[in-house]
Amino acid sequence: AKQNGGDAHHFFVAEMNAHTTERLELEGRLRYALAHQKFTLDYQPQVDIRSGRIIGAEALIRWHDEQLGSIAPARFIPLAEETGLIMPIGEWVLHTACAQNKAWQDTGCAPISVAVNISPRQFRQANLLETITQALADTGLNPCFLELEITESTIMHQAEKSIITLEKLHKMGVRLSVDDFGTGYSSLSYLKRFPVHKLKIDQSFVRDINVDPDDAAIVTAVIAMARSLNVLTIAEGVETGGQLAFLDSLECGEYQGYYFAKPMSADKFFALLRNNQTE
Ligand code: C2E
Ligand code: CA
Ligand code: CA
Ligand code: CA
Predict the structure, then answer these.
(1) Distance CA 42, CA 35 (A)
(2) Rounded Cα–Cα distance for residues 170 and 143 (Å)
(3) Which helix (H) or strand (E) holds 167?
(4) CA 12 to chain centre
(5) If I label 52, which of 110, 159, 215, 256 is the partner at 20 to 30 A Cα–Cα?
(6) 263 lines ligand 1 (CB under 6 A)
(7) Nearest residue (CA) to ligand 1, atom 37
(8) Which amino acid residue places its CA nearest to atom 42 of ligand 1?
(9) What is the pLDDT along the chain (279 residues), one digit of tens a residue?
(10) Do residues 169 and 125 lie in contact, with contact meaning Cβ atoms separated by under 8 Å?
(11) For a pocket test of ligand 1, which of 44, 60, 181 has the largest count of ligand atoms closer than 8 A to its C-beta?
């Protein structure tokens, strides 16, 4: 028995070392990427359902590492969260997205809003407000053209504290959007206290909207509730015309997803934006 236990132990240690080594390597590359400006932002259009006009863009971080290849945010954002690297990365994202949006506006394009994802740790950091104020001041972007996407579960973790932070952000004049809405178990009594502009209906509810009556019912209820609270709605992960038609029948308002366009480089987005606005 002792022998077996020893083997299992060695196996476990070997596994752990492999895991730790991989993690350390990724962390090292992440620090390198930060120091050498190896991140880029893609932009995905947010579209008015009725007019087909682009009214915003979500900024999504991209990382291509020379050694490891392209690494999805789902893989490195959690590590950035654990290590605290999310603070400087998040600052970079905010600054870059604001600067980009200001540059688009300066070309004479009709102004749109740029949506930036705020991670849980970023949302709770003490100097969040200064970071945002700084990004706006540095770039000259009017706060009403910056939207912060904060997930419902981030807000619901210590909801009372979150509401205070949301109120401060609201006073700054930035827009607030509750990301992944429907997955974070907030109740109506909380929701009516969130000073937010928009609910972003999670793509897990949109996916089967035409085939799963439960998902259709949830989305219908969320949109009706949002309307009664005077909050806008946007559906994410819209991939088909059928999904769009259903959302339009509910007067969802806005949508984002592959059906319109995948996330793309700033240059490509700008070409699409100009074309969309002069159509
Ligand atoms: P999210 O905020 O929910 O972003 C939406 C994700 O859905 C993006 O994945 C986007 O590319 C993808 N998507 C958009 N349209 C469709 C569609 O029609 N179908 C499907 N199946 N997917 C669609 P991405 O870019 O891989 O980002 C994944 C997550 O990583 C994001 O989820 C967000 O939580 C996080 N993330 C991305 N960029 C940033 C960032 O700059 N800062 C922070 N803190 N998190 C970020
Ligand atoms: Ca988002
Ligand atoms: Ca989302
Ligand atoms: Ca989601």
Answers:
(1) 20
(2) 10
(3) helix 159-172
(4) 36
(5) 215
(6) yes
(7) 60
(8) 117
(9) 445 556 777 766 777 677 788 889 999 999 999 999 999 999 999 999 999 999 999 999 999 999 999 999 999 999 999 999 999 999 999 999 999 999 999 999 999 999 999 999 999 999 999 999 999 999 999 999 999 999 999 999 999 999 999 999 999 999 999 999 998 888 888 889 999 999 999 999 999 999 999 999 999 999 999 999 999 999 999 999 999 999 999 999 999 999 999 999 999 999 999 999 887
(10) no
(11) 60
Beta carbons within 8 Å of 227's beta carbon, 6+ residues apart: 233, 251
DSSP readout, 102-141?
HHHHHTTPPP-EEEEE--HHHHHSTTHHHHHHHHHHHHT-
Count of CA atoms in the C-beta half-sphere (13 A) of 209:
28
Number of helices (H), then strands (E), in the chain: 12, 9
CA distance 49 to 252: 8
Residue with tokens 């991670």: 119
User: Any idea what DSSP says for residue 51?
Assistant: T
* Whole-structure pTM value: 0.94
* ipTM of this complex prediction, to 2 decimal places: 0.97
